[in-house]
Write a structure and sequence with these properties.
Helix 1 packs antiparallel against helix 2. The protein starts with a helix and ends with a helix. It is α+β, with helices and mostly antiparallel strands and about 130 residues long. The longest helix has about 40 residues, at about 95-134. It has one domain (about 5-130). The protein has a 3-stranded antiparallel beta sheet, with no helix packed on it. Strand 2 and strand 3 form a beta hairpin. The protein is built from 2 helices and 5 strands, in the order αβββββα.
Length: about 130
């Protein structure tokens, strides 16, 4: 496997983790958003990844960002200005604990790929030094 292939694979993984982190950020920003009906409530999103052939290896491709199918949370709050005729307010289906866990996982995966790229760079530099000594 060439250094270029390794770099492409690590780069594709970093791109995928960036999409994942952006999705988590969007979900967390809307975690407590309220709405007057179920359709208007924020529905969390999740990226869908797939493997993709890249040279001699397999990289990561983002296929789509889909809505979380979990139901939104309904609360009876008749005094809320967003309440419907029955006094219900609808909140997003985002689970903050799950999102924080997902954020940590994505951050660590991103950092791992940064380290892969740093080691590839070091290996390339060492290879060039070997050529100078010959």
């Amino acid at each position: 496997m060439s250094f270029r292939d390794i770099s492409r694979i690590a780069g594709s993984a970093m791109t995928a983790q960036t999409v994942r982190l952006n999705t988590v950020a969007s979900n967390l920003a809307n975690a407590d958003a309220a709405a007057g009906n179920e359709q208007a409530a924020y529905h969390g999103r999740k990226p869908v990844f797939s493997s993709q052939m890249m040279g001699e290896g397999v990289g990561v491709q983002v296929l789509d960002v889909v809505h979380n199918p979990e139901p939104v949370r309904k609360a009876h709050e008749p005094g809320n200005p967003l309440a419907d005729a029955d006094g219900n307010v609808y909140y997003s289906n985002v689970n903050s604990v799950e999102e924080m866990t997902d954020m940590l996982s994505a951050s660590r995966a991103f950092q791992t790929n940064v380290e892969v790229l740093a080691r590839v760079k070091t290996m390339q530099q060492d290879l060039l030094k070997l050529g100078d000594n010959a």
